[in-house]
Amino acid sequence: MSSEQPPTAKKDPVERTHHGDTVIDEYAWLAKKDDPDVVAYLEAENVFTQQVTGRLKPLADTIFQEIKGRTLETDLSVPARLGAWWYYSRTEEGKQYGIQCRVPAEGEDPPTVEPGQTLENEQVILDGNELAGDSPHFALGVSRVSPDGTMLAYSTDFAGDERFTLRFKDLGTGELLPDEITGIFYGGAWSKDGSTFFYTTVDDAWRPDKVHRHTLGQADDVEVYHEADERFWVGIGLSRSERYLLLNAHSKITSEVWFLDALNPAGEFQVVRPRETGLEYHLDHQGERFLILHNENAENFELASAPVADPAAWTPLIPHQDTTRLLDVDAFESHLVVHFRRDGLTGIRILPGDQDPYEIEWPEPLYDVAPSGNAEYVTNRLRLGYTSMVTPPSVYDYDLRSRELILLRRRPVLGGYDPDDYEQFREWAVADDGTRIPISIVARKGTPKKAPTLLYGYGSYETSIDPYFSVARLSLLDRGLVFAVAHVRGGGEMGRRWYEEGKFFQKKNTFTDFVAVARHLRGTWSSAVVARGGSAGGLLMGAVANLAPEDFAGIVAEVPFVDALNTILDPSLPLTVIEWDEWGDPLHNPEVYEYMKSYSPYENVRDVTYPPILAITSFNDTRVFYHEPAKWIARLRATAKGGPFLLKTEMGAGHGGRSGRYDAWHEEAFTLSWILDRLGVTE
Questions:
Q1: Quick one: angle between helices 661-678 and 36-53, nearest 10?
Q2: What's in the keyword line of the UniProt record (predicted)?
C-alpha cells in the first residue's frame, strides 16, 4: 500500500433534525457540486486511489487486452425488419461507438454478411463516432425511424447528465432539419404519417412529467400531457400495429394508460382505465382489441383483453397463477407472445390465435430468454434473444408455422472459447427466516471447491439479475475464480411476492439474504468472497459491509446508493418523491425514518474492522449523486478500522459510467484487477 495519505474530508458539519432526532452530518459539504473545493477533493481522491492501486496496473492492462482479444471488434447485429428495410448496427475496430444502418428488405430471411464486409445498398443512418467527435462522453437517448422510413429522430447527450438534444434527419437526402429541441428525456414516438414526433421532458427533480407534440417544421411545440402527481412519471410510444400512440403514467405501484389514433396526432388522448392506487397495467394492440397485463386481484399479473371501443371492460385470457409471474405481452396480427417467469427462470408462451397455447423449451439449467427486435406487426416469425452463464448472447428466429428455432447468430468469443470448458449450477441458500434463496453459479470445469469467489447482488425495484454471459468474466474464471449471483428478495426472480418481501419494512431481507448466500458459498464453494453491486445494489454492498464485514475479503460498490436516508428525506432531489413507493416516506412517517436509519449504510458505519472497499462513482450521475459514496468513504475512514477505503470518480460520466466501449473495458479491467488482488490471485 502507498505511504500517501488520503485527502482530508472534514469541513463545516451540518445539523439536521427529523422526528425529534438530531444528527450531525460532517460531510454534507461534499454535496456542493459547484464548490471548487469539492472538485479538488474528488480529484485528490482519484490521485490517492491511483497511488494505492498503481501496482495493479500491469494486471489491469493484461485483463484489458484479454477482453479486447476475446471481442470481435468489427461486428454487426442481426438485421431486424421494419417495413421496407432491414435495420442493424455494426461496430468497427478502433471505434468507440456503434453505427446504425439499413438495407432494402426482401423476403423474411434476414440478410447475412461476414463481419467487416458491407451489405449491398447499405445506408448509414447514424454514426455514433461522428456524432461523438472528441467528446469524452456520448450517449443516445432515442433513435427512431418514422413508420414510412423517411425520417430519423435522434437525441444526444455529451455530458452524462441524461439531458438530451433532439434532432431530425431526412433519410432520403441525409440532411438535418433545422428543428432542434433541447433538454428532453429518453424515448419518444412518431405519428403514423411521420409528420409529428412526441417526446417527454423532466421537472426540476429529474422526473419525466410532460409529453409534448412537435410538428416538423413548426417552432411552437404543444404540451399534450402534464403529470402533476410527483409520484408518477410519463412515457410515450407507438403500438407495434402503428395504430395507436400509447401514453403511460405510472408510479412504483400504480399505472394509467392513454391512447390516441396515430393517424390523428392532433387529437385528444383517451384513458384506458383511470388510475387506482395499487393497480398496475400496461397494454398492446391487436385488431379491434387491446391486450392488458394487469395485477387486479392478481399478484403475479394476469392477461386480459378489452374492445378498443370499451377499453375498461377486461376479459381474462390467462388467469393469475401463483407459480408464474407474467412479465409482458407482445401482440402481432395473428398471435400473441407472453414473456413470463417461473422458478427463477424466464420463458416464452405462444398464443397462436385459433390453436392451443404452448411454451418453448430450452435445454440449459440456467438461462435467460426474451422477445427482442420484433418491430413488424404482420409476421410469421418471432425474434428472441437468449443467453446463459456459459452461452454467449444468441439471436433466434422462431418460425410459428413449423415451430422451429432458427439460430441466426451467437456472439463470437475469440481466443478459442469453448462453452464446454465451463459449467453452471443453481444452488439454494437458507435465509434467517427459512426462505430458500436461489444462487446462480458459474466456474471453469475442474475448479476445485473452496475457490476464491466473486458474489454479485442487486435486490430492488423487482429487477431480476438473470443468468447472463460476460466476456470480461472469463478473465476471472480462467484464473480459478467462481462467479455467483445472489437472487435476493427485493428483486423479481421468484415472482412479485419476492419483490414485496424485500421493500418497505421488509427491506432488511435483501441484506440478510445476501449474507446468507455468502455464508452458504463459504461452506461449499468458496475460500473467500468479494461482493459487488451497483446503484441500489450499491446500497446492498454498504448494508452488508455494516452487517457482516467479516464475511467479505473485499467489496466493490459502483454508483452506490449509500446515503439513502438523507436522499429520501429531501423531496427536492431527483427521483426522491417517486422513490417513496419503493422505500417509504421518512420525511412524513417517523416509523419509516427509524427503519431506514437502521440500515442506511452512511448512518451505520461502525468502529469495527471492515474489508477493503472500492467505491466507483460518476460526477454527472443524476440518479445516485457522486456525493453519496464520497461521504460514505470519508466516514468509513474516520470511524472504521481496516480498509483501505478507496473512491474513484469518473469526472465526465453519468450513471452508466464511461460511455465508449474501450473506455468501459479499461474501467472493468481496473475493477477486476482490484477484485483479483483482494482474493490473492494476481498471476
A1: 60
A2: Hydrolase, Protease, Serine protease
Among residues 535, 600, 618, 673, the one annotated as catalytic is 535
List CB contacts of 108: < 8 A, sequence separation 6 or more. 81, 379, 380, 381
The pLDDT value recorded for residue 622 is 66
Task: Select which of 655, 659, 666, 677 is catalytic.
Answer: 655
CB count within 10 Å of CB 255 equals 21
C-beta of residue 220 within 8 angstroms of C-beta of residue 205:
no
- Has 35 been annotated as catalytic? no
Domains, the chain: 21-68+444-679 (3.40.50.1820)
How many CA within 13 A on the CB side of residue 445? Answer: 7
| Spatial separation of the C-alpha atoms in residues 410 and 501, rounded to whole Å | 37
| 3-class SS letters over 323-341 | CEEEEEEEECCCCEEEEEE
**pLDDT for 378-431, tens place per residue?**
999 999 999 999 999 999 999 999 999 999 999 999 999 999 999 999 999 999
Q: Is 655 marked active-site?
A: yes
Q: DSSP characters for 87-156?
A: EEEEE-TT-SS-EEEEEE--SSSPP---TT---TT-EEEEEHHHHHTT-S--EEEEEEE-TTSSEEEEEE
Nearest-5° Cα angle at 535, 202 to 622: 30
Mean pLDDT computed over 593-620: 96
Of the pLDDT bands very low, low, confident and very high (cuts 50, 70, 90), residue 87 is very high
- Per the residue annotation, which of 25, 157, 368, 621 is the catalytic one? 621
Would you give the DSSP letter of residue 640?
-
Cell of 210: 410532460
Report the C-alpha gap between 30 and 50 in whole angstroms: 21
Given a contact cutoff of 8 angstroms between Cβ atoms, the answer to whether 214 and 266 are in contact is no
Q: Compute the half-sphere exposure of residue 649: CA atoms within 13 Å on the CB side of its CA.
A: 26
Q: Which of 549, 545, 548, 589 is nearest to 565 (CA)?
A: 589
Query: Do residues 545 and 565 make contact, with C-beta atoms less than 8 angstroms apart?
Result: no
The answer to whether the beta carbons of residues 382 and 375 sit under 8 Å apart is no
Of all helices (H) and strands (E), which one includes residue 600? none
Instruction: Confirm whether 621 is a catalytic residue.
Output: yes
Number of H-type helices and E-type strands within the chain: 12, 41
Evaluate if pTM is beyond 0.85: yes
Contact predicate 152/195, CB 8 Å: no
- pLDDT for position 123: 96
- CA torsion angle for 273, 499, 240, 176 (degrees, to 10)? 110
If you search the block for the grid coordinates 446500497, which residue do you land on?
539
Tell me: the pLDDT tens digits for 507-528?
A: 999 999 999 999 999 999 999 9
Distance CA 232, CA 220 (A): 26
Q: What is the mean pLDDT of residues 301-326?
A: 97
Confidence of residue 661 (pLDDT cuts 50, 70, 90): confident
User: Which of 524 and 655 is assigned the larger pLDDT?
Assistant: 524
Cell output for 376: 413488424
The C-alpha atoms of residue 68 and residue 678 are separated, in whole angstroms, by 24
Q: Residue 624 — pLDDT band, cuts 50, 70, 90?
A: confident
The backbone torsions φ and ψ at residue 131, rounded to the nearest 5 degrees and listed phi first, read -65, -40
Q: Which of 33-42, 338-347, 386-395, 620-629 has the lowest mean pLDDT?
A: 620-629
Q: Given pLDDT bands bounded at 50, 70 and 90, which one contains residue 485?
A: very high
Contact present, 526 and 441 (Cβ < 8 Å): no
Cβ atoms < 10 Å from Cβ of 452:
23
Instruction: Let me know the angle formed at the C-alpha of 422 by 421 and 426, rounded to the nearest 5 degrees.
Output: 155
